[in-house]
Every structure is written in structure tokens, then in C-alpha cells.
Amino acid sequence: MDCNLRPYQEEVVQAALRGENSIIWLPTGGGKTRAAVYITKKHLETTANAKVAVLVNKVHLVDQHFAKEFRPYLGSTYKIAAISGDSNEKDLFGCLVKASDLVICTAQILENALINMEEEKHVELTDFTLLVIDECHHTQKESVYNKIMGRYVEKKVRKEGNLPQILGLTASPGTGGNKQLDKAVEHVLQICANLDSVIVSTKEFTPVLQKVVPRPKKQYDIVERRTLDPFGDHLKAMMLMIHEYMPPTVSRRLREMGTQEYEADVVELEKEGVKKENRLIAQCALHLRQYNDALLINDTVRMVDAFRGLDEFYNSRKTKLLDGTDIFLQGLFDENRVELKQLASNDRYENPKLAQLQCTLQEEFNDENSRAILFSKTRRGTHCLFDWVNSNRELQRVNIRAGILTGAGTGANHMTQNEQKETIKHFRTGILNLLISTSVAEEGLDIPECNLVVRYGLLTNEIAQQQASGRARAMNSVYSVVAEEGGREMRRELTNEYLESLTAKAIDQVQQMSPSEFRLFRFQILKKLLKKNERKQRYSPSQVQFQCRDCFLLVCSGEDLRKIENTHHVNINPEFERHYIAGGQVVLEKSFEDWEPGGVISCKNCGKEWGMEIKFKKVVTLPCLKIKSFSMKTPGGKSTPRQWKDVEFQVKEFDFLEDMSSHFHDLDLDE
């Protein structure tokens, strides 16, 4: 099959065809992936021993790129392998790379293969001659893309081996949240430096591009503020009682209830309480966050959804009341539960945004061929909206068939990767005509027939806004923002429009730099980047003590921990077992070569969930820990890392023979 390009695509591929590292910037629907297929084809035809890797950041994009783009144009001539986290081939990634001309995979799979030294799994960056990086604006901070490119840059600086050519693809580099042009320029330069690339866009054929990619009609569906909200008011009154239970200096610092700013404040407050081992403050902050979540849900979906979330939270804690703070917090909810439930079921005070959303959907779905995506902030929000759509008679009358699309994972509201694929397939074929989604569908999802995109109760950045509006691809499509009159969503949306135009100006300025000026800027940023990568571990493992985050029980030392395959952090000290209870079996959809999940583990003292047991190589069961469930005591004070990569000591690699000798010795003694 011939891979023909439009004039503007011809223009943006020229730098890559010359063998230069480049980022192609085209709007969603402009055919970036097709341009990448064309470059890949030319590269495979003209490069000796060519080997190409196409990296994506979402599992569903592996299949999409393979089936819709790369296989149709290259499949008859070249050997292509598509590998995602749930395919067993990933365990033989090194062998697959050797046997293929082109691999399409999630970036994490390549990252794991770069780290893993077993021959059939290991690859080097120098094994490839071209790396295509999809949605490459994610190449920053701690992202997997940036880890891979960090290695690339280090090798380049040290002049190690023949490195692959880089091709980045993006619809929305963004401004990094900056509102000044010079800072936005710096952000674009940072992405160029991280990808060691220039950024290219169409200059000659903009009118052709605008014709091919029609912008959806944007409409603001404005809703008047709720006049009365007795359910929300009652929640706020309860929150004030918790404020009064805490020292006055603490509650004075908290911003307006029911906002994301308040959420940020109580998250920080909980960390502060943990660091000071002040359980009263830590627990009050934890509960205030739940109440604030309920206010945010009350502001977005139904009161009954907000009540249900709180009810489930307090039900799960009833049996583990450790002290007076726990008794006060549980008692406060129990005393108010009946009244909250009654208020939540009173239709007179229901959320007016839902009535507006109903009108917007009804209007579009009068046409039976309509296809829409409704974006919501959280997984929980998508489930609440799904329940609302299915119980709404008017929406059922216009034959809305809704499905949920959220990120893959193992939590209660997560989807498995197969469920994601099924949902997308059903939406594409019309079995479903409304997708209720978190940001997972903002990027890359190719559904040309989508004629309505609704952003509902969302406060996000200009990248998410551009990506979401790019999902509305049918002719005469509508991009609707359902927002309260003069509310925060409205202000944010207008700011995003300004930032979108600022992005274009910043890219233009970067493109106008002289080659020497551009290189100098990029070099300065690279130097900073390399310095940052040299962050030293501050403590030895023996200096770090781990405490349960909820009850501050001291449970282990950094010396007891090991990491397996750079992802699982396990405790190898047999003594650790006396601190936890193993509960229900964890069920994962996919199977793994070296390990299988066991039961959920929780603190014996307070019931805080700590992670799960894993059975390693079918021989030994080890507790695998979630860092967010613990606080760390170090010589420099206490810290509450969100991820394992943030800990300030080196966790040793797991060595089966050395680390398990004591386990087997103990077993011999028992016999």
C-alpha cells in the first residue's frame, strides 16, 4: 500500500528524512502518525541494518498504531512486533527485537529491557537506528520517556556508540503552566533538549492543514449557581467541627472548602502530622480530605454519590478505632449520617449542572448517529456519571449507550487492559455511543466519527484542553464546556485558550533562533539535566526506619528492603511478618514470569493497607510494600515519599541466594 502524504506532512518530514533528530508538531487529526510511518518506511529502505522502535505512553495505542497505521503500510515487507504490558512476549523482548525490523511498545517495556541484564530480555539503545516517540511532550521530569532520553543524552555526551535517530510526535507541547512568553520559550526548549531535537511545523501549507483538521465549534453551556445547597452546607458545618478539634493555628491556614486548593492544603497537613507524629492532625487531615472529596462530587454529580463515598469510607474504618481522635471522627459521621442521607435524597436541591449536561446530550443524540466523549476528572466521577446516565429516563429515550474508560491498574475502579481494548472497540463500532472517560482518552484515541466532546467539571491545563477538543473530529462537531456562571472551570478554560496561543508563539520563536543560538540554549539545559541526574543518595539503608503512616508503629529498617526488577520493593526480614495481617487474594488479569500475587497485607495494629504478598519463583512468599503507606525516619527528620524513586537511600537489588539463605536456614531448623 502506498503511503501518500498531504503537502503539509511532506513539509514536516524533511528534517527527519535528512537524518536529523526532530519533533513534528501537528494538531490532533493532522496525521502525525502517518508522517511517522512514511519516515519509518524511508528509514528502513535506506539504512543498513535498520531497526525501529515506536514508543507509546498508553497501552491501547500499541494496538491502534499497529493495526491502523504501521501494519497496513509496512506489514507485507517488514517484520513488525506489537508488545504491550499484557502480552507474554515482553519477557523475551531482547529476542523479539533481534528478530524484528520494527517494534511497537509502551515506553515502560523498553525501559525495563534497558535495565534487565538477562540476555533474552536485555536491549541497548544502540540496537536501534530510529526511535519514534509518540505524545513526546511527556518527555519531562520523572516520566519513562525522560528516563530513556536521559540515558540517550548521557551516551551522546560521552560519545558512546551509534545512537538512534529520534523522531518525536506531539499535538500540544504546552507552556509548562507559564503565562510569559520567555518562560514558555524556555519550556519548549527544555522539551527540545530532552529529546535532543529541533521542532518542526508547517509554514507553507497552513490553509491546507486548517481545511483537513476542522476545529470543533466551542460552546460554553453556562449554569447558574445553586441557590440552596443544604447537603453541602451540612458537610461544611461538620468540617468546621473537625477544624475546631484541631489546634487553632492549624485550621487558620486552610483555604476555601470544596476546592482543589483546600485538597492541596489538607494533603500537606496530613504529611506534616505524620512527620511530627501528631496523630490528631494527621487523621483529621485525612478525614477532611474525604469530606472535601464529597463536596467536589456534590459540585459535579449527584448528592447521593457524594454521600455514598463518605459512607463507604466510614464503614471501612469502624472496627479499628485506636484513640480519642478516631472515636471523635467516627462519632461525628455516625451522628450526622441519617440527616446527610435524607438531604442527599431531596431532588429539590439537586446539582443544576446535571440538568444542563442532560440538555447538551439530548440535543446531540437526537441524531441517532451521534458519538460523544464525556470527560470527567476522576475514576470515581466517571462511575457516578455512568450510573446517572443509565438511571436517567430522558437520556435512555434518545438511546444513549454509555461505557466507562479509565486508566489501567489493579485498584477497585481501575480497568484491566483487555477491558480498555473492548470498550474502545465497542465505541468505534457503535455498540457504545457515549464514552465517559478520565484523561486516558484525551491523547491518541483515533475515533474520527466523534461529533461531541464535553468537558464536565474539569480544571486542567492547556495540553489536556487541546487534546480533548481534538477528539471531536466529525464535520460540524461540538466541543462543550459545562461550567458554572463565573466559576473556576470557566476561568481556567479561558486561561487555557490564551496558553494555547502562547504555545504557538513560543514554538515560532524557537524556530526562528539561529542554529548556534539554539544549540547554545540546548547545551545549557542539557548541562542542568545531567547535574540533576547525579542526585546522591543521602543516607545508608541502616539509617532509615519505616513507620506505618496511620499509627506510627515502627516496622522495619531500610536494610530489610530489596527491589525486584526495579519495580517491586519487598521486605526480606522474616521478623516483619509479625507486624501485618494477610487478607483477601489479589487478582490480576495478566500473569508474570517470576512472581504471582498473594493476599493484601494490612497493619496488624490499625488496619492500614500496606501492599500485598508476592510468591517469587514459586518458592518464597515476600511482602511487597506500597511506599505511600509508610513514613520514613531519617537522621534529617521524617519524610513521606509518594513513590519509591523519591526515597533518599539506595534500595539493594534482590539476590535470591544471598537474601533467602536465612529463610531456608530457618525452615531447616523448624524441621
UniProtKB/TrEMBL annotation:
Reaction it catalyzes? ATP + H2O = ADP + phosphate + H(+)
What is one cellular component GO term in this UniProt entry?
Answer: cytoplasm
Q: Which Pfam families match?
A: Helicase_C, ResIII, RIG-I_C, RIG-I_C-RD
Q: Which InterPro entries has this protein been placed in? A: Helicase/UvrB_N, Helicase_ATP-bd, Helicase_C-like, P-loop_NTPase, RIG-I-like_C, RLR_C_sf, RLR_CTR, RLR_Helicase
User: What are the Helicase ATP-binding domain coordinates in residue numbering?
Assistant: 13-191
Cite the PROSITE patterns for this sequence: HELICASE_ATP_BIND_1 (PS51192), HELICASE_CTER (PS51194), RLR_CTR (PS51789)
Checking PANTHER family in the record gives: ATP-DEPENDENT RNA HELICASE DHX58, HELICASE WITH DEATH DOMAIN-RELATED
This chain belongs to the protein called RNA helicase
Q: Which organism is it from?
A: Cyprinus carpio
